[in-house]
Amino acid sequence: MTAIDTTDLRMEFGDVTALEDLNLTVDDGELFGLLGPNGSGKTTTIEILTGQRRPTSGSATVLGVDPVERPLDVRSRIGILPEREDPPSFLTPREYLEFAAEIRGLEDAQDRIGEWAAKLSFEDKLDTLATNLSEGERQRVMLAQAFFHEPSLVFIDEPLVNLDPILQEEVKDHLQAYCEAGNTLFLSTHFVDVAEELCTQVGILRAGQLLGTTDPRTLESEQSLLEYFLSTVEGDKPEAVPTIGR
Fold it and tell me: Is the pLDDT of residue 238 over 80?
C-alpha cells in the first residue's frame, strides 16, 4: 500500500521555484528520509503534504487523502513535528499535551502523557512552564505530541535537533521500532549520517528537484550514502530520476 504519493508537485514563490515537479512514492511501513542541503525544498514538501501550504500545481495523496482539498482530514490521522517548533511558553508540558489530546479526542490523555513523559525522560518537567525548559526538553515535548495519539504516519523535520547524544540514540530506536510495527515515517534532514543510519529509503533533493532515491542498505559496500549523495548533488540534472534498490 502507498502512504504518500505525489504527481508533478510544484511550489513557486514569485520568481523562485522551491519545488519543481516532485514525483515521489512512499510505501506503508517505510522510514523515508528526504535528504538535501538547507533551502533545497524539504520543509516546503512537508508543509504541502501536511496540508499547511497549497502547491502552485500538481497533486498529492497522504493515506489516500488529498492534503490540499482535505487538510483537516489528513492532519487528524498523522503526527507532525516541524523544525524548531516549541510548545507555547505560557503552558506546562502537561497542559500542552492535555490541549493536544482534547483536540484529538483522546479519552486516556493522562495515561498517554505519563507514558511518553517517561519514554522521553521529562516526567520531572511536566509541570514546569515551557519558557523555563531547555531546548532539548522542549524538543522532547514536541516529539511526544507527534506520537502520543498513535498515528500511522508521522512527519518530522530534523528529528534529532537539540537532543543530547543519549536521547538521540533512544529516539532513533523508537523511530525504527515505530516503522517495524507497520507505521510510516517521513523525515527530512541535511545530515547524511542520520539518513544512512535510520532510513529504509532516501530521496535526494537539490534546489527543489528530486535527483535520486536509494536504499542505503543496498549501496555497494565501498560506497557510502555520503559518497552517493555527493556524486548525485554535484552531477548534472538527470534526465530521469535514478532509483537503486526499489
Answer: no
Burial class (CB in 10 A: 0-12, 13-18, 19+), 83: middle
The residue that leads in pLDDT, 93 or 107, is 93
Is 50 exceeded by the pLDDT of residue 244?
Answer: no
The torsion angle over the Cα atoms of residues 75, 76, 79 and 84, rounded to 10 degrees, is 50
Give pLDDT tens digits for 124-180.
999 999 999 998 899 999 999 999 999 999 999 888 887 888 888 988 999 999 999
Select from 117, 150, 183 the last residue of a domain: 150
* Cβ(68)–Cβ(55) below 8 Å: yes
Same domain, 54 and 161: yes
Asked if 71 and 100 sit in the same domain, the reply is: no
